[in-house]
Request: fold
Amino acid sequence: MENLRIHKTAIIHPGAELSSGVTVGPYSIIEEGVRLGDNVRVGSHCVITGQTIIGRNTKIYTGAVIGSAPQDKKYAADDNVFLNIGENNVIREYVTMNPGTAQGGGKTTIGDNNLFMAYSHIAHDCIIGNHCVMANSATLAGHVTLEDNTVIGGLSAVHQFVRLGRLSIVGGCTKVIQDIPPFSMCVGHPAKVIKPNTIGLKRAGFKDDLIKRLNLAFKILFRSGLSKTNAIERVVKEIDQCPELEHLIFFCKTTKRGLCS
Reply:
């Protein structure tokens, strides 16, 4: 452990592992079993506990509580559960993140390069991809999956076992109780598909031809009035396929909670 910068008021358990360049601010607590990667920065008054791994260059701001016990009645104090957080994440003020549960696979997993704004919450057994954004006070219930590049607006809440597809965006104050399709823009109480996330797709480098194909697919899937099965069949038949369309179709076929309308 080299170049550690630990404030004199911070409490570090001897059983915690801190890699090179770690910074821990005033009055923060790092408990036994925690592993912090190179150059992780922990602000003041944070608590990091449990079997929690945090990847290099992650920044954690004031008051965050990372790795505390799941809010699940089935959880027992001796359960062997984990929280794995990747690299280059930004975890803002008072964010809370819980590990998995024994019944749910035992692990909450968070990828790389994500932004979790103030007061956002990630519950047990969630799977978060890369380059996702959760705005202020956005909350995920247990077993939620966010694919890469998902954006969730402030004060939105996501129901248990819901999936949010790649490059989707959910507007603020939205109630999400069913799966959010990839590449979509959704908002409402409950959430409804408004249109493809055109601006997000352009920023991600999608060509105009591909965006046109996705627009047509969305019209068939969500505006034609066809059943899900018939709409998917029509998309496959009428639109030239590509990896993005194949992903959209696979996502729609494999939904368990249903797609938002």
The two ends are 52 Å apart (CA to CA). The first helix runs from residue 198 to 203. Residues 243 and 249 are 10 Å apart (CA to CA).
